[in-house]
């Protein structure tokens, strides 16, 4: 059976086009070059860090609100951070020995 030359050429061209299209689709999907995978990992890490920072900001905002309105929070902060006491109070500090290693 004889195949015309033009049909043979177009068949070869179509197959080459499919191979090139497959290679183009394979490379960005992480096949040969893993840049997309590394960028995705960096994006995930940045999103996780942003979520942690948002949670920290919420905690700080709640602490600011408590220190602005709650006398108990102000007293606790003064006692813990500044080692302040009321006049006439006696403070007994007990240091626990370190556990042996």
Short description:
The protein has 101 residues and is an all-alpha fold. It has helices at residues 5-26, 35-69, 71-82.
Describe the structure.
This protein is mainly α. The chain has a domain at 22-82. Helix content is 68%, strand content 0%. It has helices at residues 5-26, 35-69, 71-82. α2 crosses α3 (71-82).
Indicate the multimeric state.
single chain
Mean pLDDT: 86
How many helical elements? 3
Counting helices, strands and paired strands, the structural category is: mainly alpha
| CA radius of gyration | 35 Å
Residue fraction in strands: under 5%
Instruction: Assign a percent range to the helix content.
Output: 55-70%
CA-based shape: rod-shaped
Poorly predicted runs are none
H/E series: HHH
Q: Strand count, sense and closure of the main sheet?
A: none
Instruction: Give the N-to-C terminal Cα separation.
Output: 89 Å
Q: Based on DSSP secondary structure assignment, what is the total number of beta strands?
A: 0
């Amino acid at each position: 059976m004889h195949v015309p030359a033009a049909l043979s050429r177009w068949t070869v061209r179509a197959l080459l086009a499919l191979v090139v299209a497959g290679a183009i689709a394979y490379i960005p999907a992480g096949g040969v070059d893993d840049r997309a995978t590394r960028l995705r990992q960096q994006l995930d890490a940045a999103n996780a860090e942003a979520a942690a920072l948002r949670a920290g900001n919420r905690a700080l905002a709640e602490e600011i609100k408590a220190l602005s309105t709650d006398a108990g929070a102000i007293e606790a902060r003064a006692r813990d951070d500044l080692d302040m006491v009321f006049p006439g109070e006696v403070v007994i500090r007990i240091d626990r020995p370190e556990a042996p290693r």
